[in-house]
Amino acid sequence: MHLLPRYYRQVEAGRKTIEVRVATPQKRDIAPGEAVVFHNRDNGRKLDVIVRRITPYPSFEDLLSSEDPARIDPNGPPGELLASLRSIYPPAKEALGVLALEFDHRPARPGRPMPMTPMQYAQTVPHHTVYGCLYVRDERDRPVQLRSVYGSRLWQLPGGNLDAQGEDPLRTARREAVEETGLDLGQDTPRLLLTHFLHAGSRLPLNKVGLIFDGGRLTANQLDRIRLDPAEHDMWAIHDLATWQELMTPRAYARLDAIERARRGEGPAYLITHT
């Protein structure tokens, strides 16, 4: 079906969901569930939709008394729609009867073949790593962190990189927490506090995306049961934010501060940093 450009744009924008036609034999044969292809008269572009309903009426006037004008011409004044339809179709055409074709936005035709295989596509985009960790605190809401034995000996939250097949970031955080502290943490459905995007740099040649979940408060008994993996960490500590700021690099502390502010509902849920 050919459409004037303004009507085509309304369909394209998802606003026009009823097309009005005169009841020629060809149009009467359309049934619900069939595909209809709209053509833009100006540029030849096409849109395929699925017909949900086709309702016949004796005249345009009868049709407009039952159908919503805003679904036929969302941009046009409702009071002018009857005159607009009759300017397109002369009385002899209207005498055939008219049809309201309601359609939805399900695709009616298969899509084009993808230009490359998933494996080929993966070679065209920058690679990145993903991590998941748990933000845990003592009963006074002071953050608990672990000191790494590697590199700059950074203070870290329980968690790690997503490097096990089939894991998601939360499962990674839970598994790593057990390995690093001996505790089962984040076993309910913890709240996602922060999404962290770390730009690639000289220290880390890959972009990194991190999801930090609220691991909750640890009781005194749980804290007593922390058992570090000496291959990864040599110390754990509890401090208030002011003390952590003194102990951490500005970049690392910025993440901790953002997490705590997000937990209190005071800060952003998205943080960008650079290596």
Write up what this structure looks like.
The chain is an alpha+beta fold. The chain folds into 2 domains: 2-104, Hypothetical protein (Archaeosine Trna-guanine Transglycosylase, Chain: A, domain 4); 118-274, Nucleoside Triphosphate Pyrophosphohydrolase (Alpha-Beta Complex), CATH 3.90.79.10. It is 29% helix and 30% strand. The chain is built from 11 helices and 13 strands. It has helices at residues 5-12, 25-28, 60-66, 69-72, 81-88, 91-94, 118-122, 169-181, 220-224, 241-247, 250-263; strands spanning 2-3, 18-22, 35-40, 46-57, 98-104, 128-137, 144-148, 155-156, 159-161, 192-199, 207-217, 233-238, 270-274. It has a 5-stranded mixed β-sheet with strand order 1-3-4-5-2. Strand 7 and strand 8 (155-156) form a beta hairpin.
A few lines on this structure:
With 275 residues, the protein is an alpha+beta fold. It has helices at residues 5-12, 25-28, 60-66, 69-72, 81-88, 91-94, 118-122, 169-181, 220-224, 241-247, 250-263, and strands spanning 2-3, 18-22, 35-40, 46-57, 98-104, 128-137, 144-148, 155-156, 159-161, 192-199, 207-217, 233-238, 270-274.
- SS elements, strand count: 13
CATH secondary-structure class of the largest domain: Alpha Beta
Relative strand content: 25-35%
Which spans of ≥5 residues are poorly predicted at pLDDT below 50? none
Examine the coordinates and then state which fold CATH places here, giving the name of the CATH topology of the largest domain.
Nucleoside Triphosphate Pyrophosphohydrolase
CATH architecture of the largest domain: Alpha-Beta Complex
Helix percent band: 25-40%
Which series of helices and strands comes N to C?
EHEHEEHHHHEHEEEEHEEHEHHE
- Provide the CATH superfamily of the largest domain: Nucleoside Triphosphate Pyrophosphohydrolase
**Can you tell me the number of structural domains?**
2
Strand order of the largest sheet: 1-3-4-5-2
Average pLDDT: 94
> Helix/strand/pairing class, anyone?
alpha+beta
Q: Round the Cα radius of gyration to an integer and report it.
A: 31 Å
Beginning-to-end CA distance, first to last residue: 55 Å
The largest β sheet comes out as: 5 strands, mixed
Broad shape: elongated
Number of helices: 11
